[in-house]
Backbone:
């Protein structure tokens, strides 16, 4: 790894600095997420049981592990932070906004429990994210709560016959954005999150019919005056939503969850995933490639690397997941328990700055080869280097090969220098880029024309 780190020590800095120069004219232009987010989220490991102490412990581990120093900076609280008494919807306060579960996130005096956690996360020099879902709680509608700062009420903006996705609590109904007060209601939501110190909003359960919600939350973030990343995640949406996402969001997750809920044992969240759930991402990466760029990135869900065998992936499969996400320039949001990091995962995979640089170049790779077992994804860096991932999704070792010209390298070169980004080994090649790849494995190259 010394060779890999030496080769790329300055490269990460160059790519991070240079990505702002890349342009995606259709992307959200709020100045945020010029490179993909790096961080951690509570869902994969903590699932239904987050608490202030647990979130703060993960933040401390992110710092103490050295991951913060190389760019991991977001600590995101997912679902189950608010009071959910039943299918009538989340409990709401006087203005129809969700109420914090103070048993898990206790207040300090007059300071809301979520703000207490956000302040703690910020004290580490990290950023804090939170989870919401579209619509308005049925409880706000039944109580007809006023919308803060307006003469309007919840019933005047709600469409009670149209249920919105809230997977664990239920009880959310659609907002009619043609009604006066609808945008102001979302503004009041975001203003509350801004007061709490939120830096990142994940809005979950979104479908093609939620385009108006994406726009409303984006507009609300702008009017709040606080920079906040907007991440739109799936209730199952298609590329039909892509124009809206690119204009108003910073990242979007469209595949199904990567967690293997049916595999978990003994009431734990282990194993975090399985190979089949990673393998499904190859087609998503290829299909959504045109939509990614600085300001807005494709999110393929959590990176389930960090807990060794409890990841649910072999070491080879962990390299494959990280390589695929890095080639796609996807957010690297860790799902593992950071307080019990496996040293192999931490030192060899998560701290591999050569692979991290591939992710942070903000260029989504194209798929240039797709057979039953062989996949090749590639992209060309501003300096002319090609990043090439040779993948074998089959059950036995395979030779995977692609012509240099197919990955964007000049055909008339004297040869090509290949650096294996996982081992640091440098070799020279002729006209083809090839390797024998283990089952479910990858060889990830940085290739330079000679």
Residues:
């Amino acid at each position: 790894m010394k060779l890999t780190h030496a080769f790329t020590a300055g490269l990460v800095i160059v790519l991070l600095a240079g990505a702002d120069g890349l342009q995606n004219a259709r992307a959200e232009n709020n100045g945020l997420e010029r490179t993909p987010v790096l961080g951690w989220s509570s869902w994969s490991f903590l699932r239904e049981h987050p608490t202030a102490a647990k979130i703060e412990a993960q933040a401390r581990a992110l710092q103490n592990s050295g991951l913060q120093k190389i760019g991991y900076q977001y600590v995101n609280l997912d679902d189950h932070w608010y009071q959910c008494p039943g299918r009538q919807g989340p409990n709401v306060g006087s203005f129809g906004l969700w109420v914090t579960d103070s048993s898990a996130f206790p207040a300090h005096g007059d300071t809301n429990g979520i703000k207490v956690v956000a302040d703690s996360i910020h004290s580490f020099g990290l950023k804090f994210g939170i989870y919401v879902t579209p619509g308005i709680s049925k409880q706000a509608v039944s109580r007809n709560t006023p919308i803060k700062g307006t003469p309007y009420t919840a019933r005047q903006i709600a469409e009670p016959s149209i249920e919105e996705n809230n997977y664990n609590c239920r009880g959310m109904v659609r907002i009619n954005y043609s009604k006066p007060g609808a945008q102001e209601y979302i503004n009041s939501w975001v203003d509350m999150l801004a007061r709490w110190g939120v830096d990142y909003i994940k809005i979950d359960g979104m479908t093609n019919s939620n385009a108006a919600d994406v726009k409303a939350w984006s507009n609300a973030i702008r009017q709040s005056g606080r920079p906040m990343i907007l991440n739109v995640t799936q209730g199952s949406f298609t590329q039909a939503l892509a124009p809206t996402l690119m204009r108003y969001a910073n990242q979007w997750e469209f595949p199904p969850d990567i967690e293997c809920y049916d595999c978990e044992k003994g009431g734990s969240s282990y194993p975090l995933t399985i190979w089949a759930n990673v393998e499904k991402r190859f087609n998503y990466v290829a299909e959504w490639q045109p939509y990614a760029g600085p300001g807005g990135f494709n999110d393929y869900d959590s990176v389930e690397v960090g807990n060794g065998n409890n990841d649910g992936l072999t070491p080879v499969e962990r390299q494959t997941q990280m390589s695929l996400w890095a080639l796609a320039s996807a957010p690297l949001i860790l799902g593992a328990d950071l307080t019990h990091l496996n040293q192999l995962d931490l030192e060899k995979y998560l701290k591999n700055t050569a692979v991290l640089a591939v992710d942070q170049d903000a260029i989504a790779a194209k798929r240039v080869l797709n057979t039953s077992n062989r996949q090749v994804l590639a992209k060309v860096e501003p300096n002319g280097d090609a990043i090439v991932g040779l993948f074998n999704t089959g059950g036995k070792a395979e030779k995977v090969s692609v012509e240099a010209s197919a990955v964007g390298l000049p055909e008339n070169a004297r040869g090509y220098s290949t650096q294996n980004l996982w081992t640091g080994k440098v070799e020279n090649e002729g006209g083809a880029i090839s390797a024998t790849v283990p089952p479910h494995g990858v060889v990830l190259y940085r290739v330079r024309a000679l």
